[in-house]
């Protein structure tokens, strides 16, 4: 083993020194690490510096402070079977101070199933002593000691963290009590076949410094009120993202300066753009500006001891579809311990006798429980399965539980991320045969004295033989690839006649050693695939494995051809980019091969199993587009560090990659000019200008010329361009509405003055000059003194800002600008460019690489970004923070270069990135978005008509949690259920519709039952909400289940032996009256949605609902989607009946009853709709609060329904919530009562609909003629989506100028307003003529258009 990790790309000599070992006592063995590594660091600890080359990826996630805390922790891992060695391996790679591995036992055959550091020649030897030297090779900074003595109290006090595996319950309780009393953090982990258990006790005063590891949020402020609870309103560019209970601080606030630099203030979220803070009534008046930033506050949490927690356990849910499993397994694992204590062995695999005995013991354990650990009724089948497979030892389960346990150790050491509180149970029973009654025999699963005994105990010998014959293709040998290969070897994949083929074109780098555990320092610069193959061959000599160094893509399809794919049983991806994943997915779909897809992103991960004809493929769904930074923001108006980082990244591409590429294409490709001239707009001139600069004006012939180029470019970017910008828009510039131009998101910049004594200025010059020199093959230099001498001779041209230079304020303005080609300049460039035939240039484009500290890439990015940040007074970033964003995805480097046409002239921009406070998110353009399934959530736009909680439209957004698109329902048709038939096409269609009706009932029942079991009951039991609150939210949903079960039963009885349905009309006619129960349910939904949205602001509720939505059972639907299913079902009945009626022949018995049934259900739907509308109108009327008595118009009280309501802006840019009731238009400002309920403060004087004058403002009309338009234009002098309402003959009612979010919303408002005006005037006329009969309900008012969800699409309610 090398004494220290080597520098990246450094090749190791063949005389590498190996570490030895010696016995320090009769009970311990350790690796001799007394020598000093090459970098001078012998070990981790207080004085140790962090090896950033080794730990770079881990530092992105943990940060330096957490890493230093971890380097001061001594860890004991007891039990060196498969689970223990997995935990030890991960902890050692993580970089703690030291690790001691402990075990009394000796290696047995069953250990070889998962203990990858044991070999057949080690049988009979102590597991800890055998494992210690192999574990010590993983990280030379972490001393590893083997200990075989007793875990005495005095010995345990040496450690900060103790991990117990393969231990008795008595030992767990004894060690647990000691650790709890001494402040030692304890992790207990255990696996029993397909079952896993994890327990954490980190003491009574555990401090968590950062609960989630996410970057702190920040937002720009548009308003702060003076009140006993000041309300902060953020700019509407994006939602602030804060949660109630978060702490924030303020900077750059003008006016209310008391907030600047204040101590962190706790907030309460009022809406997506607003939140309340402390008492601001005594502060000075707010003027403008300001940035609010989230502050991560330390959180103190208390753990119970193991003994206490046994009786009163607190469970973490891993699968909400198995809500009752943790309590059952808590009893089951105690029963396993009791069985083992009684018989000195585990239950025999698949022994019915032992299964019955374990069940008896479980009942005894359960009856002895006194606290919440006691379950009402044991799941006997589950306890028996625990007995059947409990003797098993499975590498994949150990890898999973071991990974979680090691992560908890890191949390215990660092105080970063919320620990598990306190019990976690896991099972993978889905791996067993799905057929009912399939039970393996004791004989099939009896031990064979072979390395797979631990696996045979669970699955039997037949599966083991099948695994040995499998032929698998693994693409990528990075961190996930190494873990997969280790598991493949342990489970015996390709251990017989099969084969594993692994391909990876990458070489091993130093930074890989921290997580790609098959590689050692001596392997640096070797090929990953060959090295990984050789390493797993050591773990299991019987595995047949071949390493390739091929890229996957069209250019290697001659290697991975039809014969190759046809011979495979499956493919596993361990890739780092989406394009390569999609390519492999297409190949697997084409050849109908299973695909195992996985990836990681920091602490997050995803797995997708793709099975032909059973699941969707990887490419079947796509992530939403990432939020991009507007081009004009990047070019001229940055306001956050991520803007300057992205700008710097674009600079790198635009200076050192694209121009050399285009210049070389011009010189080498005869068709380059032809293709360039075909580019759209002004791109031909832009490309040829860059080529001309590269080959003529900017071409350096010496190092001094490169320095001069860097100095002049510095002057252009950080002084001249800023001066030109300020010439166009002076600091005191006002918009057409009189507001300061440099306000809100626009920060007023200032030019910089160059100085050789400024370190940042010199950093930029040295990095830029060296990179520029590299592109031309000129020898660079790091001699700063020499660079200063050259700079003193550089003549920087004087710059004077020019008039007439157009600077675009918005992307829309940029798109609308004249982008035609300057033909005269194009002709000049054609003449001035040197002839490709005579030119001897050789330019080299530079691909960005952030992991090499010597290549100037990161130096340039950091300096460029921070200089631009200084221009705009944005707080700078440092190099450490620049790299603390999570690594985009798992290694593998299988980049599909064929996906991009390198022959095309390069004018592309680097992919914009989402907001981050660090550099990693914007410095890896070669790696496309990493995790296809991570952080994905689709929200639809706001309901125009009846959203229950009136919030602005939720944009398409990405969340930091694993998620995927909704899982598809079984789309089976009626014709799929019958083997043959002789029906007419019309009758087939009729049967299909009836079958759809039946299946819809079945699915609704399943969903409603799921809602009750997975949402209602757990929230009640866990006291996430009170029973009263749950009753308000779920309403009478429970009563709907038997109602639909009755219809399903009736429909199934109608289905004859040939699976056809004859007469269905009478059944529906008799059942439809039951739907009157929907009146109560739908009327309740209005208030239910408002309450649910209110409760979502509570972290416990939000966390529970988010976990449910991420679970597989939810199909990625949120709770409200499920609660809204009955209403959706109700409106389908008339549609289905019409389809049945359409397919029913004239002589059919249903011809008489179907029309009656249709009329009945339509009348019920209309009644439900009417009552719901009245309830909705009443709900919002009750939520109105009036500032003046004159605002209480009788028209509001008399209104029976709402035409529409939603968010509009007034002429001051303020957000209003506007209600168009049946008889009045009411403008409000949203607020909350003391309990957090929604209120609407009436703004100005409401308008009776009969007196409204409506004026539509055409888009694009100049802003100068109206008093309101400038506020809507953002400085563009154009209005969009605006209209005005005013009152005839009402002196108190001012005209209201309003702006909708988009043109569609504007049209909806205008249409509804016109209809409301006409109906109100008709009603007035009818009243004056003493026509007492009420007008009919408007035609638009149907339950089909009623959407109580604020996340559903806007519907045109006037088109019906």
TrEMBL record:
The keyword ATP-binding applies. It comes from the Eukaryota. One of its GO terms (molecular function) is guanyl-nucleotide exchange factor activity. It catalyses: ATP + ubiquitin + [E1 ubiquitin-activating enzyme]-L-cysteine = AMP + diphosphate + S-ubiquitinyl-[E1 ubiquitin-activating enzyme]-L-cysteine. Residues 1195-1318 form the PH domain. GO terms for biological process: DNA damage response; intracellular signal transduction; ubiquitin-dependent protein catabolic process. Residues 895-907 have a biased composition (Basic and acidic residues). It holds the Pfam family SOS1_NGEF_PH. Residues 989-1171 form the DH domain. It is an enzyme of class 6 (ligase). GO terms for cellular component: cytoplasm; nucleus. The active site is at residue 632. Residues 14-37 have a biased composition (Polar residues). Residues 883-894 have a biased composition (Acidic residues). Keywords: ATP-binding, Guanine-nucleotide releasing factor, Ligase, Nucleotide-binding, Ubl conjugation pathway. Residues 1-47, 871-915, 945-973 are annotated as: Disordered. Its EC number is 6.2.1.45. Pathway: Protein modification; protein ubiquitination. Belongs to the ubiquitin-activating E1 family. This is E1 ubiquitin-activating enzyme.
């Amino acid at each position: 083993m090398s004494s220290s990790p080597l520098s990246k790309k450094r090749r190791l000599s063949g005389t590498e020194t190996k570490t030895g070992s010696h016995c320090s006592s009769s009970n311990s063995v350790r690796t001799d690490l007394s020598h000093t590594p090459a970098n001078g660091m012998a070990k981790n600890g207080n004085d140790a510096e962090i090896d950033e080359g080794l730990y770079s990826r881990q530092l992105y996630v943990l940060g330096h402070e957490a890493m230093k805390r971890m380097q001061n922790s001594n860890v004991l891992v007891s039990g060196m079977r498969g689970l223990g060695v997995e935990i030890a391996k991960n902890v050692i790679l993580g970089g703690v101070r030291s690790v001691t591995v402990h075990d009394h036992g000796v290696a047995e055959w069953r250990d070889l199933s998962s203990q990858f550091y044991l070999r057949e020649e080690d049988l009979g030897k102590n597991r800890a002593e055998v494992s210690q030297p192999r574990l010590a090779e993983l990280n030379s900074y972490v001393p590893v000691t083997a200990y075989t003595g007793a875990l005495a109290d005095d010995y345990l006090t040496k450690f900060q963290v103790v991990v117990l595996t393969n231990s008795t319950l008595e030992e767990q309780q004894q060690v647990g009590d000691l650790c709890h009393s001494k402040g030692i953090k304890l992790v207990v982990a255990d696996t029993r076949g397909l079952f896993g258990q994890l327990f954490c006790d980190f003491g009574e005063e555990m401090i968590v410094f950062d609960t989630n590891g996410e970057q702190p949020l920040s937002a720009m402020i548009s308003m702060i009120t003076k009140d006993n609870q000041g309300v902060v309103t953020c700019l509407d560019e994006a939602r602030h993202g804060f949660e109630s209970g978060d702490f924030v601080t303020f900077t750059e606030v003008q006016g209310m300066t008391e907030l600047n630099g204040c101590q962190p203030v706790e907030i309460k979220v009022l809406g997506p753009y607003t939140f309340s803070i402390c008492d601001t009534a005594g502060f000075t008046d707010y003027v403008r500006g300001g940035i609010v930033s989230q502050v991560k506050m330390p959180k103190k949490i208390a753990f119970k001891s193991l003994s206490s927690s046994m009786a009163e356990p607190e469970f973490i849910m891993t699968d909400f579809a198995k809500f009752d499993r943790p309590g059952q397994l808590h009893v089951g694992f105690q029963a396993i311990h009791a069985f083992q204590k009684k018989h000195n062995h585990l239950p025999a695999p698949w022994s019915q006798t032992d299964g019955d005995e374990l069940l008896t013991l479980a009942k005894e354990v359960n009856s002895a429980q006194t606290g919440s650990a006691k379950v009402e009724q044991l799941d006997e089948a589950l306890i028996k399965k625990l007995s059947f497979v409990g003797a098993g030892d499975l590498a994949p389960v150990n890898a999973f539980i071991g990974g979680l346990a090691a992560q908890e150790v890191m949390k215990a050491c660092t105080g970063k991320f919320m620990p598990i509180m306190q019990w976690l149970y896991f099972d993978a029973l889905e791996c067993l045969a799905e057929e009912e009654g399939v039970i393996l025999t004791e004989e099939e699963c009896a031990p064979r004295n072979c390395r797979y005994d631990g696996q045979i105990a669970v699955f039997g010998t037949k599966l083991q033989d099948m695994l040995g014959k499998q032929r698998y293709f693994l693409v990528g040998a990075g961190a996930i690839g190494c873990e997969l290969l280790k598991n493949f070897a342990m489970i015996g994949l390709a251990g017989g006649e099969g084969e594993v083929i692994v391909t990876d074109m990458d070489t091993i780098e130093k930074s890989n050693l921290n997580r790609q555990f098959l590689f050692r320092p001596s392997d640096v610069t070797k090929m990953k695939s060959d090295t990984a193959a050789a390493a797993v061959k050591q773990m299991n000599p019987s595995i047949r494995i071949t390493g390739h160094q091929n890229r996957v893509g069209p250019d290697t399809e001659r290697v991975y051809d039809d014969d190759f794919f046809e011979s495979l049983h499956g493919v596993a991806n361990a890739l780092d980019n989406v394009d390569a994943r999609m390519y492999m997915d297409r190949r697997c779909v084409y050849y109908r091969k299973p695909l195992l897809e996985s990836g990681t992103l920091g602490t997050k991960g995803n797995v997708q199993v793709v099975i032909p004809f059973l699941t969707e493929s990887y490419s079947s769904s796509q992530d939403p587009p990432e939020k991009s930074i507007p081009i004009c923001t990047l070019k001229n108006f940055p306001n956050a560090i991520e803007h300057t980082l992205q700008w710097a990244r674009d600079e790198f591409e635009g200076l050192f990659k694209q121009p050399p590429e285009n210049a070389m294409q011009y010189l080498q490709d005869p068709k380059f000019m032809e293709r360039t001239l075909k580019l759209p707009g002004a791109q031909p001139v832009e490309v040829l200008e860059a080529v001309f600069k590269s080959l003529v004006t900017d071409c350096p012939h010496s190092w001094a010329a490169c320095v001069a180029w860097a100095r002049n470019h510095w002057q252009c970017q950080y002084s001249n361009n800023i001066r030109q910008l300020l010439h166009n828009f002076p600091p005191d510039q006002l918009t057409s509405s009189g507001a300061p131009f440099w306000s809100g998101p626009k920060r007023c910049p200032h030019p910089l003055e160059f100085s050789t004594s400024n370190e940042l200025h010199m950093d930029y010059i040295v990095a830029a000059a060296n990179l520029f020199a590299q592109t031309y093959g000129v020898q660079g230099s790091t001699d700063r003194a020499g660079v200063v001498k050259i700079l003193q001779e550089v003549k920087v041209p004087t710059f004077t800002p020019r008039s007439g230079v157009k600077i675009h304020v918005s992307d829309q303005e940029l798109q609308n600008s004249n982008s035609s080609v300057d033909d005269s300049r194009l002709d000049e460039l054609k003449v001035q460019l040197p002839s490709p035939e005579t030119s001897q240039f050789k330019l080299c484009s530079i691909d960005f690489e952030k992991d090499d500290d010597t290549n100037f890439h990161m130096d340039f990015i950091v300096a460029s970004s921070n200089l631009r940040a200084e221009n705009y007074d944005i707080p700078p970033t440092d190099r450490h923070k620049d790299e603390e964003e999570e690594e985009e995805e798992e290694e593998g480097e299988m980049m599909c270069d064929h996906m991009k046409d390198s022959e095309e002239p390069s004018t592309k921009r680097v992919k914009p990135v989402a907001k981050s406070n660090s550099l990693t998110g914007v410095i890896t353009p070669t790696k496309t978005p990493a995790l296809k399934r991570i952080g994905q959530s689709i929200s639809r736009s706001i309901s125009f008509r009846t959203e229950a909680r009136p919030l602005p439209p939720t944009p398409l957004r990405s969340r930091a949690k694993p998620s995927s698109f909704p899982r598809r329902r079984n789309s089976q048709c009626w014709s799929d259920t019958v083997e043959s038939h002789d029906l007419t096409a019309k009758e087939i269609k009729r049967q299909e519709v009836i079958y759809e009706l039946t299946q819809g009932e079945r699915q609704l029942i399943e969903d409603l039952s799921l809602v009750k079991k997975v949402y209602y009951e757990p929230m009640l039991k866990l006291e996430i909400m009170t029973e009263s609150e749950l009753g308000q939210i779920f309403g009478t949903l429970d009563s709907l289940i038997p109602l639909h079960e009755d219809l399903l039963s009736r429909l199934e009885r109608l289905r004859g032996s040939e699976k056809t349905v004859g007469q269905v009309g009478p059944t529906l006619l008799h059942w439809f009256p039951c739907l009157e129960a929907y009146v109560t349910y739908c009327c309740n939904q209005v208030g239910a949605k408002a309450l649910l949205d209110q409760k979502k602001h509570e972290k416990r509720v939000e966390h529970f609902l988010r976990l449910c939505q991420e679970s597989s059972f939810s199909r990625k639907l949120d709770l409200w989607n499920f609660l809204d299913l009955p209403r959706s079902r109700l409106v389908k009945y008339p549609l289905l009946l019409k389809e049945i009626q359409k397919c029913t022949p004239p002589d059919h018995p249903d011809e008489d009853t179907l029309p009656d049934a249709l009329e009945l259900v339509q009348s019920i739907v209309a009644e439900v709709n009417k009552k719901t509308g009245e309830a909705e109108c009443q709900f919002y009327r009750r939520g109105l609060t009036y500032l003046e008595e004159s605002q209480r118009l009788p028209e509001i009280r008399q209104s029976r329904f709402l035409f529409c309501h939603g968010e509009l802006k007034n002429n001051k840019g303020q957000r209003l919530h506007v209600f168009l009731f049946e008889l009045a238009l009411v403008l409000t400002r949203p607020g909350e009562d003391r309990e957090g309920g929604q209120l609407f403060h009436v703004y100005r004087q409401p308008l009776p609909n009969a007196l409204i004058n409506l004026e539509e403002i055409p888009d694009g009309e100049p802003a100068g003629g109206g008093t309101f338009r400038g506020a809507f234009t953002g400085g563009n002098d154009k209005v969009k989506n605006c209209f005005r309402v005013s009152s005839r003959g009402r002196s108190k009612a001012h005209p209201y100028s309003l702006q909708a979010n988009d043109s569609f919303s504007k049209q909806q408002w205008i249409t509804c307003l016109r209809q409301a005006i006409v109906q109100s005037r008709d009603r007035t006329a009818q009243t004056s003529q003493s026509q007492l009969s009420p007008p009919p309900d408007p035609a638009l008012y149907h339950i089909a258009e009623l959407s109580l969800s604020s996340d559903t699409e806007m519907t045109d309610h006037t088109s019906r």
